[in-house]
Amino acid sequence: AVCDKWDLDATVVGKVTEGDRLRVFQGGEMIADMPVKSLVDEAPTYIVEPVRPGHQVDEPLPEDHYRQPDDLGEVLTTLLASPNICSKRYVFEQYDYTVQTDNALWPGGDAAVLRIKGSPTGVALTVDGNGRKCYLDPCRGGRTVVAEAARNLSCVGARPVAITNCLNFGNPEKGPIYYQFQQAIEGMSEACEALGTPVTGGNVSFYNESFGQAVYPNPVVGMMGIIEDTGKIMTHGFRREGDAVLLIGGARPAVDGSEYQLYIHGEVAGRIPDVDLEKEKSLQALVRQAILEEKINSAHDVSDGGLACCIAEAAVAGGMGAMIDLGKAAFAPGAGPALRADLLLFGEAPGAVMVTAAPEQVDGLRVAAEAAAVPLAVIGRVGGKRLVFSDAGAEVINIPIEAAAGAWGDALEKILEAGV
Question: 378 and 247 in one domain?
Fold first, then answer.
């Protein structure tokens, strides 16, 4: 009946029987009869000695490893136009994403949300992956991709509940590839256990190589979450002039494995920051509770492109600018010297969310963050039609939001038409 409802062909091809034998028939004739144990417990096992790849290092790059570009505004628009950050509307506008009218949140946000007709409950879905970061450290990369998927769900107000995956690797018969596979699974497992998101299924794709060169190790995570009340879905775009801009959480951002490193400095090198899974849980719970209690007006995961791209995406989505003081960022203090402006803007590290809230809500949010032991800082306010970032009292970026929107909005179509 279910298949008929969806116009799907379905045929009964077998049945479950007692005993421990698997029997296969063709045309009424039995062509195979074997013990199930032979298939389940006694299948051949490949023994491959894992070998740590030579490019993998134990220390991050020095924070002054690259020269800071002169025009940081140009860096911002360049990153907004990069394939991993730019708008994907060129893809999702080519099909009817309103089929069956179950969209509770339009495409383009931190996660998709589907309503369940006749119920206030919604299902949130996201897909995340980062091959570069897994290449630099597959265990940390595996943890990071699961944590980011959960963070994206939390930013729309959903409680993460389960994942599926597609694990893409090269030839596992080679020691370095086997090592990457083993380490990525270890990292993903740790994150899933910490965040309470069991693995419901998945797929492994090996031998992804061209001319002997393997693809980046790329575990792709699809994660599902539950929203109890679709009337309280959160979006990422700025909503109100005068709102405070807050940064919640956040480790010290780094250039290693970042979009900034790849597209501005032309390298993939160093060691990525690790994710603190206990702090991640606390951060996400804090954000979800703030959404439930209607204390914030927008929320957006700080990930690819760092804080600057996060702010720019929110500005473009809301049609409002912002004035940001980088020196007030929660991750600016800490071990080591003060961060340079380019790393504050474009450096990447897991465990940060940007939210906006009415000024009268800030004190309550601060109290909740202190109770949860999660860093929180007011870094600016929403307003105007420009993106203005300052550091140590000096403007480092001042561009109209139209420039950000132009770079971000049409880039994918241009990239695909150019055949890149």
Answer: yes
Under DSSP, is residue 9 helix (H, G, I), strand (E, B) or coil? coil
Q: What is the pLDDT of residues 222-240, one digit of tens each?
A: 999 999 999 999 999 999 9
Tokens (6 digits) for 28? 């009424």
Please list the residues that pair with 25 across neighbouring strands: 30
Q: What angle do CA 243, 377, 308 make, to 5 degrees?
A: 75
Lowest mean pLDDT among 102-111, 123-132, 375-384, 391-400: 102-111
Q: What is the residue whose two structure tokens read 């770079």? A: 407
- For residues 295 and 418, membership in a common domain is answered with yes
∠ CA(61), CA(64), CA(67), 5° rounding? 115
Which has the closest alpha carbon to 236: 406, 87, 412, 395? 87
Q: Can you tell me the distance from the alpha carbon of 361 to that of 352, in angstroms, rounded to the nearest whole number?
A: 19
User: Whole-prediction pTM value?
Assistant: 0.91
Report which DSSP code applies to 351: S
Total domains in the chain come to 3
Helices (H), ranges, 156-276: 175-195, 259-265
